[in-house]
Each structure stands twice: as structure tokens, then as C-alpha cells.
Amino acid sequence: VERMLTPAVLEEVGRLRTAGQAHFIDKDIPGFIATMRNWVNGVQIVHSSLGWNTEAYQEQELGAPEPQSPKEKAMDGLYDRYQPETLLDLGCNKGRFSYLAALRNVRTYAFDTAESLIDKLYLFAKATGLPIQAHVVDGARLEPFSDPEIRFDMVAYLAVIHHLIFTFGKTVQEVVAQADGLCERVAILEYVSSDPAETFVYTNYDPELYPDYNVPGITRELLKYFDAVEAIDISVSRTLLVASREGRPDTRKVHER
Fold first, then answer.
1. What is the rounded distance in angstroms from the CA atom of residue 178 to the CA atom of residue 172?
2. How far apart are CA 237 and CA 159, in angstroms?
3. Using the 8-state DSSP alphabet, how is residue 143 labeled?
4. Among 51, 80, 109, 212, which residue's CB has the most CB atoms within a 10 Å radius?
5. Contact 196/230 with Cβ under 8 angstroms?
6. 107-112, strands of its sheet edge to edge
7. 3-state class of 154 per DSSP?
8. Is it the case that residue 208 has pLDDT exceeding 80?
């Protein structure tokens, strides 16, 4: 942790360590506890405005109940078209799309690794009575599923598949296989291109290393499992790939614990 500290904080921690060691040498445990408590009580938390998962970001509300951005309007239209009974929002972040689905009375399961965001979403759902179950789950560790007891009517991977591929080393084939296992009727995968405006993808994408990370490649893989795939452009660099199954028996089930 010391490598992440500023010189001023590192100096303060050094003084704290010296004081703590002195208390231990003297076998003065109450003095050690008092020193630590005084230091903790004196710590000032400064909110950062950088990044997508900051304190200030977490404090922001989920927003208006009406869809605002092109992406929100597209997703709201898909909720209306397919009328899912259950939704798995994998990598839900703050839970904006879970919120929009829950407003339509869709039983929504919101998964993310950011505990602070999930905590806030859980408390929001509890306070409002909306049908959202928020869980801290690492989507990169989910294996493909085949048991229909744990399938969801609709599964959404919004702004997440590029992280699964570039950060966690998943292949397009593995991501799509996971979506197939989790999904009963409709899977929505958001593709983010290597446009300079998309800094993360732009700096990590290599066509030789990731030959299938493109709209045609992901679509080909989806068609191995689904009957149809529709591409909806929501910006110059982002596309929703909507994979659906038609004419299947109504065996929708969701695993609940």
C-alpha cells in the first residue's frame, strides 16, 4: 500500500508505525488502541472526481424515471418490445438500467463487483419497494450455465464485454457462451468500438489478438445459440447487439435464494 501513498501521507504513516511499535514494546495495548483510534478519527476523506466509481459518483441519484440518453431509450424500447419477466443486469454499475426495468415491474437482478454501488442500490430498492435484488458478483468468474433453473428471461451486458475481454482475458466465444447459459429469451451485448473517444478500448484493442471483437464476429458467435441478432447503434462508437430466441416453449425460470 505504501507505493500508493503520497509523501506527506507516507510520513504520517511512518510516525504512526513508530508510535504503535513503542506501545507494543511497552506492552501498552490500551495506549496502542487509543493512538490508532485518535488517528482514524482525525482522517479526512477527500472525494475524488475522477473515474466512474468515485465517492461523488456514488452519491449521485439514479436519475429521472424517464429514459434520457439514446442508450436508455433503446433499452426502454427493448423492455417494452420483449416484456421480460426477469432481467439479469450483469455489470450493473450504479443500476440505472435495473431501475428503468424495475419501474416496468420487471423482477431485476443487478450484479456488480463494486460493493459501494451495490450497497446503495440495495438500500434504494428497499426504500422504494422496487423489484431489484442487488448482489456483489464478479461476472468474470461466472462459468457458462446450462441448468434452466438459473436462467433469466433477459440478460444485459451493458458496457461490460470489453472489460471481460481486455481486462480478464475472456474470449468472445466464452462471453457469448456465458450469455447463452444465463439467458432464456433475449441477450443484449453492448459493443464498444476502438474509436479514439473510447479510451479504454482504443488503447487495448489489437485486431490480431482479438480478431472476433467486432460486430460481425460477435454476431456470428451469437447466431450459434440464438435465432436472430439485431444491431442497434446508440452512438458512433457503441452498438447494442440484441440476440433473441423465437418459438421456444415458455419455460422461463429464475433461481431465487
1. 10
2. 12
3. P
4. 109
5. no
6. 132-136, 107-112, 86-90, 152-157, 183-192, 238-244, 228-233
7. strand
8. yes
Separation between Cα atoms, residue 254 and residue 257, nearest integer Å: 10
Whether residue 50 is predicted with pLDDT greater than 60 in this model: the reply is: no
Identity of the residue numbered 27: K
Q: Do residues 225 and 218 touch, judged by C-beta distance below 8 A?
A: no
Query: In the block, which residue shows the cell 417494452?
Result: 80
Which of 164, 113, 110 has its CA nearest to residue 136?
A: 113
Does the pLDDT of residue 248 top 50, yes or no? Answer: no
Structure letter (DSSP) for residue 142: P
Specify the amino acid at residue 11: E
Q: Which DSSP helix (H) or strand (E) runs through 179? A: helix 172-182
Query: Which of 168, 152, 174, 150 shows the shortest CA–CA distance to 98?
Result: 152
- Sign, CA dihedral 89-51-195-207, equals negative
Measured distance CA(194)–CA(215) in Å, rounded: 12
Question: Which residues are CB-neighbours of 102 under 8 A, at least 6 positions away?
Answer: 108, 125, 130, 131, 132
